[in-house]
Amino acid sequence: MTMTDLSLFEPVAALLAQTGAPHDVPDSPGILCGNWLTPMTAQALALLSDTDPAHAGGSFTGNGHTHLLIAPSTDTRSAVYLRLHASGDVSPEAAADKTVVLGLAGTSDLEAFRHEGDVADDHPWYVREFGPESIYACHADTIVALRSSHDSCQLVITQDSLTPTGRTLSADEYLRAVKSAHRLLTNALNTVVPAHPLTGTGDQK
Predict the structure, then answer these.
(1) Which letter does DSSP use for residue 197 in this model?
(2) How many CB atoms lie within 10 A of CB 117?
(3) Are residues 188 and 149 in contact, defined by beta-carbon separation less than 8 angstroms?
(4) CA distances (Å), origin 54, targets 51, 82, 86, 116, 168
(5) Cα(171)–Cα(55) distance, rounded to whole angstroms?
(6) I want to staple 71 with a disulfide (CB 3.0 to 4.6 A). Which of 80, 111, 126, 183 is the partner?
């Protein structure tokens, strides 16, 4: 993993360490300040280029998404996945693991529900669209429904590994999904305008 700047994941680890209590906020949540889209996308591409088909056993597809394991926790101290759009219906389900999600490409519409009664009434208490360079944490047992655009790609980071939902990928399916993710992220990286040397700001084409 010599191509990967592991320091980029340190602010994410701080978010994963939160308990969910209102007072428990990292002192220096640097990643929340933005300007991480290009380096994170580049590091995701580096991980994809160095990934192992054996990671197919830790990757799965279901409920409208494919989760690709691209770095186990033994490599980065947190397990790193890429989440891609997949065919199939989406239904609300309780999150099995605490995760931090970083939007790299496309958009995702998130609905969160307080309890099963809200699900039955189709009454989410939280609705938001997440695009590139957006970030959110999802705590275990939160009931969520996520619908993503066909060009969406998010980094999903958890402390150990994700609890599989749906069907495990075969090695061939994993490699095809890696190619798709590589294409999506390469296109996304090529649309980012470099920061201006005087203003330090950039935008998308």
Answers:
(1) T
(2) 9
(3) no
(4) 9, 16, 21, 37, 12
(5) 8
(6) 80
How high does pLDDT run on average in the chain?
84
Residue 83 host element (H or E): strand 79-85
**Cβ of 144: how many Cβ atoms within 10 Å?**
15
Residue 89, Cβ density class (10 Å: 0-12 exposed, 13-18 middle, ≥19 buried): exposed
Q: What is the 3-state secondary structure (H, E, C) of 122-181?
A: CCCCEEEEECCCCEEEECCCCEEEEEECCCCEEEEEECCCCCCCCEECCHHHHHHHHHHH
Tens digit of each residue's pLDDT (9 = 90 or more) over 132-146: 999 888 989 999 999
Which of 99-108, 114-123, 161-170, 184-193 bottoms out in mean pLDDT, i.e. has the lowest?
184-193
Q: Lowest-pLDDT range, 17-21, 103-107, 173-177?
A: 17-21
pLDDT exceeds cutoff 50 at 191: yes
Using alpha carbons only, what angle is made at residue 81 by residues 45 and 188, rounded to the nearest 5 degrees?
Answer: 40
